[in-house]
Structure formats: structure tokens, C-alpha cells
Amino acid sequence: MQELAGKLAALDPEAGAALRVIAYFDALVDRHVGLESLVRGAAVLSGQTARLSVDDRGLVVRVGADGRVLPPDGAVSPAWPHRPVGDGAGTVWVETTHEHRALDDLVLERLAAAVRLVLDRTRGRVVPGDGATLERLLLPGTTPEERERLVRRLGLEPATPVRLAAVLDGRTRDGERPVVLRAPDALDAPRRTATELDGVVAVLVPVEPPTPAGLAVRAADRVEDRLGRRVGLGPRVPAVDAARSWTAARVAVRFAAGGGADDPGRGVVDHADLGGLVLLADVVGPGTAPHPDVVAVDAAAAAHPWALATLDALTRHVSLRSAALEAHLHHSTLQSRLPVLENALGWPLGDPAGRSRLVVALALRRLHATA
């Protein structure tokens, strides 16, 4: 279809663009994506903010042209191009007042049809593992009654204990399907469910009977092809409160290391292990200037290819011998590197205060990378 659209675009640009819209939404429907992914597709294709309102669920989804989820607020303008979804189930809009374009009509038509399919699929029958149902469960603004209905549709009871994992870069090699956890023992449940929300894969794992947090971490560490992926774990909560675990998982994943020489460290982070560090996530956003300590770490990494792995090892162990073992170094080699790193950073690394400062600097560095 994409090849045909390309050939057609050479002859008739408008017809080629229309065919691309049709192919795009057909692909999303075939992948059984949720509502947010559909609205994101409409926003990207139209180059405008797209909005969906599901009236009988009190649900509003807004996504900007850059693909970022926007707050579900603001008055709706009757001047915006819009289409109803099914028999009054809801409405889709493109938030623009520019001159009418035929492409907007087609985007809205295909969006409305795709949303209708998702709503029909997520009503009534029990379908464990349905990503669209999980997405609606995690979206803000879902009423308590709706959450209970969605939980039961996933084959769970409202009180069933679950954990949410947030996975960055969580796609298989073909780029199509979200990864799932290969969970051992009690976490190896057939009711795992995955979906994608704002570029992060959400994985819901029922944890009956209750399992130690360490087991959940080991389970998340078995995400397929783990190298280069970040995983954050939320707390164990009743299934009806899954959104709370998801919020915590989204914070935790920002502290996880991406892997490799550029970002060594723990690829799986449990929100419960972060303690007061979680407060840093609130102060580091896309436009936040890096702290001087982060700049110093980056400068040290640029000057010394071994710096990041060595610094990470120092944050994980109290003794230098253990840190050297972690970094696959001889003890004397690590000792010789310390003065070089201290000179590059501008603070000592041999005392608790210096190590604590390093922990914060590395955490801030990861928060900037995932802002």
C-alpha cells in the first residue's frame, strides 16, 4: 500500500496523501492499538492537535502534532472540523480554524471509524490481554465505575493485585508489537497485557499470590532483548487502581539506565527503591537546563571513555574493591582513576558526601535523557 501511495503521489499528490492516510489507519487497526495511538496518528497526519471525546465514558484524549499527549481541557470550538463516532458514542476533532482541507475530512473519517472499532471491541465481552482496554484503564479521567468494568473485561477482579511496568524503547525488532515480560514463577501469568501510551509501553502483570518486589524486578529484567531498554516498576495495587501503579512506573523508568557505554547502570528500577530521589523527576523537564554536576559528568565522559562505567560502579558499592570488580578492573586501576575523575568532576569521590553527590548527578543525567 505504501509503495502504491508513493507512485500515486508522483502523479497526483492529493490522491497519494489520501491513500497514505487510509493505509496508516488500516495498519493501526490491524495492530489493535488503543485510543491514544489512534488520536496520535490523526494529529501527526493532520499536523494539528487532535481530540477525542467519548461521551458515555466521560473520556477525553488530546494529542498535539508532535505526538505528545496534552491535558484533556479547553473548550471545544464549533469551527473545528469534527466527525461523530458511531451512533452518538463520541466525537473526534482536529483543533484548527485554518482553511478547510479535504485531508482533514479524510483523517477525521478514518479516525472516527477506527475509534468505533476500538469502542465496540472494548465493550461487553471478556478479552484478557486486550491492549485497548488496558489503555482506557490507565487514561486519566476514567470514572471508578468504568475502571471496574474495564478490569473485569481483562478477566480480573477489581481487588486482584497487579503491578505495572513502564518500558521505554519497548518494541520488538520488527517495530510493530510491544514487548511483554517473560515472568518466572507466580508472575508468569497468561493475563499479562501490554499497550503503548505516549511512547512508553505499559505492561500489566497480575501478581497472585503476592510476590516479593525482588521477584518482580527479576521478571522485568527478562524483557525480550533487554539491552538498550529501560524498565520502571510501579507498586503492587488492586487492579482497579492500576493507574496509580502506572504513574509510579512512569517515574521509575526515567531513572533506569539505557545500557551500553553511554549509559551504564541498572536497566530495571523499582519505584519503591528510589526513596526521595523521586522528587527530582518533578523538577527536570524537556526545557530544564542541566545542573553543573551533570555538565561535569558529561565532560568527564567525553574526555575518558571509561568514566561512566567507573562512576556507575562507584555508586553501587561501598568498597573500592567491590566497585573495581563491578567495573571489571583491577583494584589498583580503579585507585589510579579516582584522582582523574575527581579532577574532572570537581569534587571528591572517596567519602560518603561525594558518592551521594555522584548518585544525584547520574540520576539527573538520566532524567534529562528521558524528559
From TrEMBL:
InterPro entries: CdaR_GGDEF, PucR_C-HTH_dom, PucR_C-HTH_sf
Residue stretches making up the PucR C-terminal helix-turn-helix domain: 308-363
All copies of domain CdaR GGDEF-like, residue ranges: 142-254
Gene3D superfamilies for the chain: PucR C-terminal helix-turn-helix domain
Pfam families (alphabetical): GGDEF_2, HTH_30
Membership in a protein family: Belongs to the CdaR family.
Protein's UniProt name: PucR-like helix-turn-helix protein
